[in-house]
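Notes taken during the Thursday session

The instructor put the following on the board and asked us to keep it in front of us for the whole hour. The protein is Periplasmic chaperone PpiD. We were told not to look anything up and to reason only from what is written here. First, the residues (606 in total):
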Amino acid sequence: MLQSIRDRSRSWGAKIIIGAVVATMALFGVESLVGLFGGGGDEIAKVNGEPVTRQQLELEVQRAIRSGQVPPEQERALRNQMLDQLITDRLLTQYAEEGGLHLSEEQLDQLIVSLPEFQDQEGRFSSELFRNRLASAGYTPLSFREELRVDMKRQQLQQGLAFSDFTLPSEQERLGALQRQTRSFRHHALTAADLEDDLEVTEEAMQRYYEANAEDYQRPEQVRLEYVVIDRQQLADEVEVEEEALRELWQERSHDVDRRISHIMLTFGGERSREEAVAELEAARERLADGEAFADLAAELSEDTVSAEQGGDLGVISRGFFGEAFEEAAFALDEGEVSDIVETDNGLHLLQATALEREPFEQVRDDLRREVAMSRVSGEFNERVQRLIDESFAADDLRSVADDIGLELHESDWVSRDGADGVLSEPGVMAEAFSADVLEEGYNSEVIELDEDRRLVLRVADHREAAVLELDEVRDRVRASVEARLRREALIELAAERVEQLRAGEAPEIEWQRAENVSREAADGLSQAVLQAAFRLPAPEDEEPVFGHAVAGDRVVLIALDRVEPGEVDGEVENFVARMAERLRAQAAIQGLLDDLRDKADIERL
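Then, after some discussion, the predicted structure tokens were revealed:
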């Protein structure tokens, strides 16, 4: 969390400007810029009455994907996480503004002129670059300043909390000593086989447990849904794409890629006329056609002596470094092809593309196929979506709509507001299912835009109110829980008896497992509960082991601590521990604030 605070302070301009314009244009087109910066878009959540829009969510999802943080195939799973982050940001912003955090106009001015996004090649603020970048992102200077002000207030709040706590030198020394300490101990897990008496689960015990934990057997308000989905990707998967079309797109994409070029150059105007130079190069082309190697001819004929020694190789070139005629010829070549004669200020040339800096066709074939197929089904997708909008609005059921448009009618099991999965768990879907029009009036829902490629309409097929399930309905679950609790209690009691016997030297033989010189970080296959219990025991005196036990879930483990070693002093480790302590304190402060804000906030997911 603290790292994210620092990271966010370094790249506000890039995040706000470049990220906004790239992701927004990719998602919604140029005309959407007005909607983005004007706060438009369907509401998917409210935080203390302030809306969070679907468009804002899509923008953050696409930013994460384009930044490489999340692969595209995880896009759908990413949405809930990003919505949580938007809600968190809104809570922090509201708290910062209520607390009166302030940035002066001078501070904003200083921040803007220091942003590298607005600096020229010499590192100086450029008003022209500032205006152009803001204009391209759909910002006015005032709207940009306001968004920057909000972001910086949120940053001030988090940094203030992060640096408000500290550790004393004595605490750091103590932490370092504890951190480098190692312990050697034995451990043995007690099992149900160690219990002498069988566990008896009585009806009375089950009833008591059921009544004491009734909230665990609460069935929330639920619905069964019918729904249809129009998925552009699914339509694209059914399209046949010719191999020729894929190779054409691959070649088109290769037109401007960097490439390795070799050349044979001849000059004219002195002892050689232009016509003579042309004739010599034409003769060279004929020799190439007869099978001679380009590199051999370049070494023999080219008057560019530097490249001739390398078989004519000029290295990898990009557009913009050579003249127009040279580049037009070079970038028209496929790998291995030789150009016609090209004239530049330096003379006449034959060019050969020896390699193109592109991914192999087979490696990108699936991506190309997806792109071609998606473009071909766009018209059908839009037509189907429009029909879905028109027909679902007027229909008294959803099956006839599905049959008319050629869609599969899906049926869900019982689902609650927070208990759906798959497509029904995506933002806004269950809110629509429990809306008054759909749940109470029985209408088909409005068309829900899940993302740019999917649209969904749903209808409530059945509904049941929240209720506590009867004991008979959950008897097996209750019995299992009571058995587990009784077994755990019996094992804990047995562990306490064995510890007393061990201390008195009266315990039966135990098959111990050994853990030698274990540190707090090196778990060595041990559970955290066992490791923590071993490090809580007091150090042995007079080489007498210290006994204890740990509860790790349903397991109870005996521990015999044999030895405590101070470990070696490592300045780097000491510094790391001190920094980590500061970070944990800061993180706890920030997390505490967030937990408090969430508890007190009115958060509504629509």
